[in-house]
Amino acid sequence: MRVVIAGGHGKIALRLERRLADRGDQAVGLVRNPDHRADVEAAGGQAVVCDLESAGVDEVVKVLEGADAVVFAAGAGPGSGAARKDTVDRAASALMAEAAERAGVRGFVQISSMGAGAPPGEDADEVWAAYIAAKTAAEVDLRGRDLDWTILRPGGLTDEPGTGRVLLGPPPLPRGSVSRDDVAAVVVALLDEPRTAGRTLELVRGDVPIDTAVRAL
Ligand SMILES: NC(=O)c1ccc[n+]([C@@H]2O[C@H](COP(=O)([O-])OP(=O)(O)OC[C@H]3O[C@@H](n4cnc5c(N)ncnc54)[C@H](OP(=O)(O)O)[C@@H]3O)[C@@H](O)[C@H]2O)c1
User: Fold this and answer.
1) Which of 5, 9, 19 to mutate for ligand 1's pocket (most ligand atoms within 8 Å of CB)?
2) Which neighbouring-strand residues pair with 46?
3) Of 162, 174, 183, 202, which is most buried, counting CB atoms within 10 Å of its CB?
């Protein structure tokens, strides 16, 4: 399987690249900073420099040709303002999805966030409100595409070692956290299970082995 990962130097993305490479799949990580190539390659992936806030759709289509799936793992990140929530968390996802349609790449796993799909609380600050609005709009965009999409909404992300056990299911799940290791492992399992297409799923830490949780969906 050849999987193109938007936000290829992200913390989930690097873990995902390592997992895919370890089992013989090809991971292609899109990075905007050329200095990040070495880390993607060290994780076993192939790095392609592509800034998703300035790239045109034709450029992305070229990168996607011959791929089996896209994983959207980019994000403007903590410390970024409301404007970049829109240009990355919404618009870059829509760009990847449009390019996937044009390139004929059917599989698309979008890493969204718990909290998406509903208005932010009344006490939400401007940046959190922009983040939730961007993630929600990216989900709406993806659901309208002719793709085998799966939307994954993790809870709060941690850098703890993965446990291989999760709570995964349609919203709403109780709020909670989940390790990036386990998110990456769930993404691999979703890529392997075509019947998860068309599903919106939430993810927090739990007791169910990941393969069992995905099979049970
Ligand atoms: N933090 C949480 O608790 C939480 C909870 C639920 C969901 N999420 C979502 O989970 C996803 C991944 O999380 P993570 O912790 O792995 O994120 P991360 O480490 O911040 O990685 C995001 C990546 O996106 C890249 N990126 C930003 N702008 C880009 C652009 N214009 N073109 C190409 N790449 C760009 C960043 O590259 P640079 O290094 O160059 O900036 C970074 O490598 C994000 O979508 C996030 O919103 C987070």
Assistant:
1) 9
2) 28
3) 202
